[in-house]
């Protein structure tokens, strides 16, 4: 900086007739000192002004600095209010580009925003899409990390991990970070931090011998010499970094070599530098006090040109080059200001700046428009935000001949004219610290080749995906295709699925062996279907659901009021739990099975007026998608997928079971009731499970609850997947696991749970398995006992039990399924006389007269009618809709022209109209109607799995969940009836973090869900009076927080009294100091004509003693009951007194900085009540006694104890010795 100012002053063209000066301050890497230095520069250090109007130029025209972002923010916040121009050479925080907050801030170093872009360009160049991130816990690191993550996301790259480097160098945190780096698959690690933050981590990297990582260095440590030792080479060799643009300053080297202590004898810093540089001493003849020779004598004529140090090395000027540009930027701005022609200026009224009364904001105007080129050829200007032209050198850390690390430039990155980032790299010059001597691979997933597409892995970033082959007729001809494209109509995909080729004319002939085989299989399948159709027709009355439907229809037909003169019939089909079979059965029902029609116009009623079913969601979706086009009414008794509530897609679908949307809300209500905020989720990989899981995630998020893990149950029962899921459950801290799945999906997992003896989990069962019999055995009791589940509303159907018992093989001899049912029920056989072909007796003969009432099976048990009860309601809903349709009065119908439906030519959509408005009550007292989406009134029973006397599991009803119109969701539980399968016999705790008590607030843990937080105590004067408060509330002005920080209480009037020991002690110290001052004043008065008093300017000494007495006495204003006048005077009196002291010292000595340091009161800020006053008094007394002892004790010592040295010769002799 001194060189630049000197060079400008010698330049007759830049600032003619103007000489620049400067003040230099060291910030000591401390915010407080840097801020104070900036204030001193801006306000000046003069004590008086010759111009009483306080006009004239400001003390300085601009500030070069500060190099640290945090400090620059603080300084610019204040000086920006006065538009004092500040040009930093090293503060990079992107936040400083905010022109509203920092209107006079400029910089000659690029912003972190560009630094981040530059580093991401390096990652993109080498296709490193999966990188780790480390950053320092300060403004520089935090802002850079935020920008980096945004920039990575912009280009579809991913951050594998993100960790903060601890500023306290906590060893546990350091070890945690190294474990994260070691565990990650990311080979590239990006670091935004200064060396002080990073050194402890690198020491641990060396200790753990962690090689195989490609480090990317930000400009804050890319040129740091700390790591350039042989010790770090195996680990940091090959590091890529970006650095400030290197420059050259002609003449700087000679200027640095011209430094001499004799040039500035008062500059103690130069003397210390010189002694350290040449290992010599200016004092004591080069000897220590004990006479031992330790250093040679400094002559001041040593030659700096013979040294090789960073001071004399100007080959790598980076930060220094930015300082040079900053000084010249201010000079050029001042030059342009001086060139203004009167009447053509840029300010109000076309005026120019007044050179004798320059305003800071006027120079800011010209600084914004600066445009010049340095001697090195670099262009200097600022954009609208005060940022410099963006340019960085790309560096590579390479091994040198002595085994250390040397820095080698391998490229440049800068921002082009169109604001895009231009990246130039010499790849052949880069040293790679890997066995292959090539760039490493750092990706979460390898690229998908043409012919495949990306399929993102669930729960992982976008960079983590699988590559799935394109389907037949689809292609992808690029790498990492997101989706496959369908080939045009006359084209087909080639074998590699990366090109569309013309379709070959090819067909399957009846003469080909394959054609013959397939034709045979087709005819065979047709025959089997016909056979199955006959079997189903004959055995349609056997299952309990089917029997319930038959019972309901029979009951309706016998009811003279519901459908008089109309007899309902039915067809029954079994879907065999197969989508294809269910779909074909529905199509048969919808289109009819007749081969010919007597009515050639094809008119008349449809084959069926409605369909009850299907029981599963996936078949119901398929069936409703087709039959919905014809508005055929479908009423399901068990399909719960919330997707079926979509009236646009499924306009004729109804159901008598609540939607999964309500089931999910019901289950979340149970979780909320027991305060289980941290739960695991398992779901089946079908429409039922997937939609339920999506809704569950949304509902949990709505109430601020969290899903600890989310896993789908494999439909192929893969053992590896099952073991992986059990591992996830065991590793999780969640004690509650929610499952949406059918038993067939869940059973393999539960077998593994038993195998691994995994107890201590609270299972929550969806309605699909809450009443399942497979788990109600002693085998599962230790693991599934205590399970809570929700189930379809249980109902009672009077007369059904008797109807079921009337089932008899003789009623329908052709029904072979009934015969099989009867044989299995009673363990007998109708054929072969009860013998097998080998004549061995194995079964008794079935007579057909066996009594079903003597059996105890699920078939005859009607105490737990749930799905069957829904079948019953579905049949009655269709019957009531048909009844309402029949009651229509001619001319007053709901259809076009007020018409009624024609019962002879009934249209399905007409029945849908009436089904939508159905409203009736069952014999059990349950109300049946449908909402606008065809959903039933939502109600569920809450069940609990409890141990029975035989060691098995019994299901008990412990509550009800329903949704009312006015009250919304209502959960009613009998908690005393619930069995908890834990040692405590109480509900478990399942939270990620325990609740924050009143007096604290939540602080979310980084990278974890909102349920995972720390509890931070409220600050003094802040309170929180609720559990889990998000933030603390500030107490009103006259109130303060109590010790528990949960209430605001009136502030106590507390003061330092003369009666208490502390007050007495401080008063005594004050009076003692006053007396000592008085005594010293008497001594100095009595000896005022002696050399030592006269030599120290006796008038100023008396003024200093008088002001110190006032300092001691002003302490008394701080003690005792506060009054308005004492509060107003105490600081004013001390301020005036201490200013007098400082003024006297400023004239007498050159140690004013030390005095200011020793007198800073920045210690009692956090002291409470009267102790704040006590600490303030102590600071005043300490400062005053310090001055008194430091300045007057030596003089009094000579005057009183060594009068023989109080002579002019003695004093002069001592000074000569010092020289």
Automatic annotation (TrEMBL):
<keyword id="KW-0807">Transducer</keyword>
<dbReference type="InterPro" id="IPR001828">
    <property type="entry name" value="ANF_lig-bd_rcpt"/>
</dbReference>
<dbReference type="Pfam" id="PF00003">
    <property type="entry name" value="7tm_3"/>
</dbReference>
<feature type="transmembrane region" description="Helical">
    <location>
        <begin position="1064"/>
        <end position="1088"/>
    </location>
</feature>
<dbReference type="InterPro" id="IPR011500">
    <property type="entry name" value="GPCR_3_9-Cys_dom"/>
</dbReference>
<dbReference type="Pfam" id="PF07562">
    <property type="entry name" value="NCD3G"/>
</dbReference>
<dbReference type="InterPro" id="IPR028082">
    <property type="entry name" value="Peripla_BP_I"/>
</dbReference>
<keyword id="KW-0472">Membrane</keyword>
<feature type="transmembrane region" description="Helical">
    <location>
        <begin position="1171"/>
        <end position="1193"/>
    </location>
</feature>
<feature type="transmembrane region" description="Helical">
    <location>
        <begin position="1132"/>
        <end position="1156"/>
    </location>
</feature>
<feature type="domain" description="G-protein coupled receptors family 3 profile">
    <location>
        <begin position="1062"/>
        <end position="1161"/>
    </location>
</feature>
<keyword id="KW-1003">Cell membrane</keyword>
<keyword id="KW-0732">Signal</keyword>
<keyword id="KW-1133">Transmembrane helix</keyword>
<feature type="domain" description="G-protein coupled receptors family 3 profile">
    <location>
        <begin position="1164"/>
        <end position="1215"/>
    </location>
</feature>
<keyword id="KW-0812">Transmembrane</keyword>
<keyword id="KW-0297">G-protein coupled receptor</keyword>
<feature type="transmembrane region" description="Helical">
    <location>
        <begin position="1100"/>
        <end position="1120"/>
    </location>
</feature>
<protein>
    <recommendedName>
        <fullName>G-protein coupled receptors family 3 profile domain-containing protein</fullName>
    </recommendedName>
</protein>
<keyword id="KW-0325">Glycoprotein</keyword>
<dbReference type="InterPro" id="IPR017978">
    <property type="entry name" value="GPCR_3_C"/>
</dbReference>
<dbReference type="InterPro" id="IPR000337">
    <property type="entry name" value="GPCR_3"/>
</dbReference>
<dbReference type="InterPro" id="IPR038550">
    <property type="entry name" value="GPCR_3_9-Cys_sf"/>
</dbReference>
<dbReference type="InterPro" id="IPR000068">
    <property type="entry name" value="GPCR_3_Ca_sens_rcpt-rel"/>
</dbReference>
<keyword id="KW-0675">Receptor</keyword>
<dbReference type="Pfam" id="PF01094">
    <property type="entry name" value="ANF_receptor"/>
</dbReference>
């Amino acid at each position: 900086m001194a060189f630049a100012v000197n060079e400008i002053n010698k330049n007759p063209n830049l600032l003619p007739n103007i000489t620049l000066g400067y003040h230099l301050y060291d910030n000591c890497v401390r915010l407080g000192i840097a801020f104070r230095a900036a204030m001193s520069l801006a306000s000046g250090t003069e004590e008086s002004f010759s111009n009483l109007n306080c006009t004239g130029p400001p003390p300085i025209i601009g500030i070069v600095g500060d190099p640290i972002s945090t400090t620059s923010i603080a300084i610019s916040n204040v000086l920006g209010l006065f538009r004092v121009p500040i040009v930093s050479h090293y503060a990079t925080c992107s936040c400083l580009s905010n022109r509203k907050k920092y209107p006079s801030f400029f910089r000659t170093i690029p912003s972190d925003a560009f630094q981040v872009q530059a580093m991401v360009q390096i990652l993109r160049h080498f296709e490193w899409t999966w990188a780790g991130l480390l950053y320092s816990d300060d403004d520089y690191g935090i802002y850079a990390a935020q920008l980096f993550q945004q920039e990575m996301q912009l280009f579809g790259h991913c951050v594998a991990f993100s960790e903060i480097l601890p500023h306290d160098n906590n060893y546990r945190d350091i070890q945690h970070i190294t474990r994260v780096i070691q565990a990650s698959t990311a080979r590239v690690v990006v670091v935004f931090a200064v060396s002080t933050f990073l050194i402890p981590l690198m020491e641990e990297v060396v200790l753990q011998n962690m090689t195989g990582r490609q480090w990317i260095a930000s400009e804050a440590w890319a040129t740091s010499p700390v790591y350039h030792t042989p010790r770090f080479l195996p680990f940091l060799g090959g590091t890529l970094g970006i650095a400030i643009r290197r420059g050259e300053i002609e003449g700087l080297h000679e200027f640095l070599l011209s430094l001499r202590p004799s040039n500035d004898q008062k500059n103690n810093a130069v003397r210390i530098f010189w002694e350290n540089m040449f290992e010599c001493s200016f004092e004591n003849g080069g000897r220590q006090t004990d006479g031992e020779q330790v250093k040679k004598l400094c002559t001041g004529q040593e030659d700096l040109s013979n040294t090789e140090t960073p001071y004399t090395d100007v080959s790598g000027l980076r930060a220094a080059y930015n300082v040079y540009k900053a000084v010249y930027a201010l000079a050029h701005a001042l030059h342009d200001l001086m060139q203004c022609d009167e009447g053509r200026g840029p300010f109000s009224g076309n005026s120019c700046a007044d050179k004798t009364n320059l305003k800071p904001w006027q120079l800011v105007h010209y600084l914004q428009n600066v445009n010049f080129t340095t001697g090195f050829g670099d262009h200097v200007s600022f954009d609208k935000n005060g940022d410099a032209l963006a340019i960085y050198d790309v560096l590579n850390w390479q091994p040198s001949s002595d085994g250390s690390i040397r820095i080698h430039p391998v490229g440049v990155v800068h921002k082009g004219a169109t604001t895009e980032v231009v990246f130039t790299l010499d790849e052949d010059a880069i040293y790679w610290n890997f066995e292959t001597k090539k760039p490493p691979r750092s990706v979460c997933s390898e690229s998908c080749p043409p012919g495949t597409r990306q399929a993102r892995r669930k729960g992982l970033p976008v960079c983590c995906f699988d590559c799935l082959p394109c389907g037949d007729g689809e292609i992808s001809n690029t790498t990492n295709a997101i989706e496959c494209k369908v080939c045009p109509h006359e084209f087909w995909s080639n074998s590699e699925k990366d090109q569309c080729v013309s379709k070959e004319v090819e067909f399957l002939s009846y003469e080909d062996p394959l054609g013959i085989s397939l034709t045979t299989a087709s005819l065979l399948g047709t025959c089997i279907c016909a056979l199955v159709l006959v079997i189903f027709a004959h055995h349609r009355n056997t299952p309990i659901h089917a029997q319930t439907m038959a019972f309901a229809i029979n009951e309706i037909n016998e009811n003279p009021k519901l459908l008089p003169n109309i007899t309902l019939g039915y067809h029954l089909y079994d879907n065999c739990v197969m989508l294809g079979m269910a779909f074909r059965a529905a199509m048969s029902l919808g289109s009819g099975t007749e081969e010919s029609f007597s009515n050639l116009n094809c008119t008349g009623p449809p084959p069926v007026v409605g369909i009850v079913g299907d029981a599963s969601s996936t078949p119901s979706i398929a069936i409703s998608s087709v039959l919905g086009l014809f508005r055929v009414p479908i009423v399901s008794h068990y399909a719960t997928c919330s997707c079926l509530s979509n009236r646009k897609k499924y306009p004729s679908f109804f159901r008598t079971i609540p939607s999964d949307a309500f089931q999910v809300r019901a289950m979340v209500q149970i979780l909320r009731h027991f305060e289980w905020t941290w739960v695991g989720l398992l779901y089946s990989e079908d429409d039922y499970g997937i939609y339920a899981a999506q809704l569950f995630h949304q509902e949990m998020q709505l109430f601020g609850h969290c899903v600890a893990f989310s896993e789908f149950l494999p439909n192929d029962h893969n053992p590896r997947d099952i073991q992986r899921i059990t591992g996830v459950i065991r590793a999780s801290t969640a004690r509650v696991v929610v499952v949406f799945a059918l038993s067939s999906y869940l059973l393999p997992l539960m077998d593994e749970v038993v195998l691994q003896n995994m107890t201590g989990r609270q299972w929550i069962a969806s309605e699909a398995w809450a009443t399942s019999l497979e788990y109600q055995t002693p085998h599962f009791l230790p693991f599934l006992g205590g399970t809570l589940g929700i189930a379809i509303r249980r109902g009672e159907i009077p007369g059904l039990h008797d109807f079921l018992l009337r089932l008899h093989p003789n009623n329908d001899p052709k029904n072979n399924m009934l015969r099989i049912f009867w044989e299995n029920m009673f363990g007998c056989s109708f054929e072969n006389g009860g013998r097998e072909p080998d004549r061995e007796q194995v079964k008794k003969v079935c007579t057909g007269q066996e009594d079903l009432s003597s059996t105890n099976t699920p078939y005859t048990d009607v105490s737990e009618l749930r799905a069957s009860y829904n079948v019953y309601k579905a049949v009655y809903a269709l019957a009531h809709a048909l009844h309402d349709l029949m009651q229509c009065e001619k001319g007053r119908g709901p259809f076009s022209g007020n018409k009624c439906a024609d019962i002879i030519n009934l249209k399905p959509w007409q029945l849908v109209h009436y089904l939508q408005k159905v409203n009736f009550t069952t014999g059990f007292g349950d109300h049946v109607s449908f909402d606008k989406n065809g959903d039933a009134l939502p109600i569920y029973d809450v069940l609990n799995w409890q141990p029975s006397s035989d060691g098995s599991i019994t299901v008990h009803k412990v509550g009800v969940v329903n949704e009312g119109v006015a009250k919304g969701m209502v959960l009613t539980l009998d908690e005393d009836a619930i069995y908890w399968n834990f040692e405590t016999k109480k509900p478990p705790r399942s939270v990620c973090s325990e609740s924050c008590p009143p007096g604290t607030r939540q602080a979310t843990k980084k990278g974890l869900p909102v349920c995972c937080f720390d509890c931070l105590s409220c600050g003094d004067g802040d309170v929180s009076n609720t559990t889990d408060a998000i933030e603390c509330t500030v107490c009103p002005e006259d109130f303060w927080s109590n010790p528990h920080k949960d209430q605001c209480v009136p502030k106590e009037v507390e003061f330092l009294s003369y009666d208490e020991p502390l007050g007495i002690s401080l008063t005594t110290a004050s009076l003692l100091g006053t007396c000592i001052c008085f005594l010293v004043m008497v001594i100095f008065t009595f000896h005022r004509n002696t050399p030592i008093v006269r030599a120290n300017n006796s008038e100023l000494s008396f003024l200093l003693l008088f002001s110190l007495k006032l300092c001691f006495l002003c302490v008394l204003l701080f003690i005792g009951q506060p009054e308005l006048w004492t509060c107003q005077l105490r600081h004013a009196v001390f301020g005036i007194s201490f200013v007098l002291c400082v003024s006297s010292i400023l004239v007498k000595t050159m140690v004013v900085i030390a005095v200011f340091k020793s007198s800073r009161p920045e210690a009692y800020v956090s002291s409470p009540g009267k102790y704040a006053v006590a600490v303030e008094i102590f600071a005043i007394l300490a400062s005053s006694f310090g001055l008194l002892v430091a300045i007057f004790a030596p003089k009094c010592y000579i005057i009183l104890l060594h009068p023989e040295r109080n002579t002019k010769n003695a004093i002069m002799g001592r000074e000569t010795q010092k020289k």
